[in-house]
Amino acid sequence: MKKIFCFLFLYIIVNLAAIAQQDPQFTFNRLTLLTVNPGSAGNDGQISGTLLNRWQWDGIKGAPRTLVFSVGAAKDIFGINSGIGLNLISDELGFFKNTMVSLDYAYRKKTRFGDLGIGTSLGIYNMSVVNPKWFTPEGEFWTQADGDQGIPEKGGQTAFDFGLGVYLKTKDYFFAASATHINQASILLGQTARSFLVRHYYLSGGYNITLSDPLFELLPAIYLKTDMVSYQMDCTVDLVYKKRFSAGLNYRINDAVSVLIGFEMNNGLRFGYAYDIMTSALAGYGGGSHELYLNYSIDLGKNRSKKYKSIRYL
Hints:
This protein is mainly beta. It contains 1 helix and 19 strands.
């Protein structure tokens, strides 16, 4: 029974890692857009960095744990209006650990529809088996030495990976479309197991609505991810006060309802927290998911704390 359970557990986790969780799931998906859409690099004209940590399905052994560092900037390269970006992602799921490093470049141009970015992402993706022990229903460990030698104890491989994206933004709305893992690289795990990177497609968009009191804004947005077999959609509404305080709700279809809060300090440092309340079948097996981020942006043309004199006295 232990072998049967471990084989089923392995089968489920491998499929999750190979399809659903290759690209990590985020509730603050607007902040992590650069990780899946290189066209968004430098879209705000600033140097902007984000550090985000997600603990998914709290209380379930082997649940995803994801750490992201992402930074993007606007830059003139050889006189061309451009955006550049760097993404570092560590994603643990069961006995898998996935590490992704990518560099982004976006060609940016003003159009009559808004500021357009067209970008590409080049990087490496490492998938490895790092934990050779599996849990049995009794909470005991079972290792490869106890059973089937066909189940890899340890192993991994690094593959080249690239993606494409477009991003359109005005002061009122944004629209984004992208694809990741376009080359669908194959990865060997141990001597007998093989996985591959599944191509994913993304569509997202949002609108800024100024309410009757101009200090308040409403920001509805959608975020769609699909591998052309299954899909996942997030619908989010944020209420923003003075462009510094935010509170919102997110509904991820057939998965979770989330509460989001955020705050920007006077020095420009932003932080936020989201809690996902599971609505799927996993709800009876563990707690919700937690997500925490820090973000800082530097506008090279402005200083948030600078006091400007009247032009009459310059």
